């Protein structure tokens, strides 16, 4: 999943939007193949304790990996929404738009990513800050969902919109009375 995320970030800056569409579709196929879109519907994870036994440590490591995977899945979703806004990608965004609760569940699963991966070394003041800022972060997740909805509706109303990349093209479209 990390590979998909970094490819989105790289390709957005240097590759054609058509290629980003292929990456978006490949990421969606991977998500479906391994049923990663149901990752957030599994039972809630417990936060790490300061003193854990060997079995508990193994379970926490699995939990840390699951939360990290959920965070990567969210980042891929966010990058795909950004690409859709620019006229490429959007396959992952469309998939999760059909069930926005799944993305929220994945986001909730990813919340303790840093705490679970840092373990007892995670600073207490950061934990408090995480709790205080959780509503603002949740709102930003809602805004990503909203951004995709707006982008998708704009593209369905004006499917040619993503082709306008320069001011010259914009004026050319206006002269031809496209919009």
Please outline the helices and strands.
Blueprint: H1 2-14, H2 17-33, H3 54-85, H4 91-97, H5 100-110, H6 113-118, H7 124-132, H8 134-157, H9 167-175
Helix pairs in contact: 1-2, 1-3, 2-3, 3-4, 3-5, 3-8
End-to-end separation: 40 Å
> Given the structure, what is the number of helices?
9
| Class computed from helices, strands and strand pairing | mainly alpha
Let me know the number of strands. Answer: 0
Order of helices and strands: HHHHHHHHH
Provide an overview of this structure.
The structure is a single chain. The chain is built from 9 helices and no strands. With 179 residues, it is mostly helical. It has one domain (2-175). Helix 3 (54-85) packs parallel to helix 8 (134-157).
Keywords:
about 180 residues; mainly alpha; 9 helices; about 0% strand
Provide a concise account of the structure shown.
The chain contains 9 helices and no strands. It has 179 residues and is mainly α. Helix 1 (2-14) packs antiparallel against helix 2 (17-33).
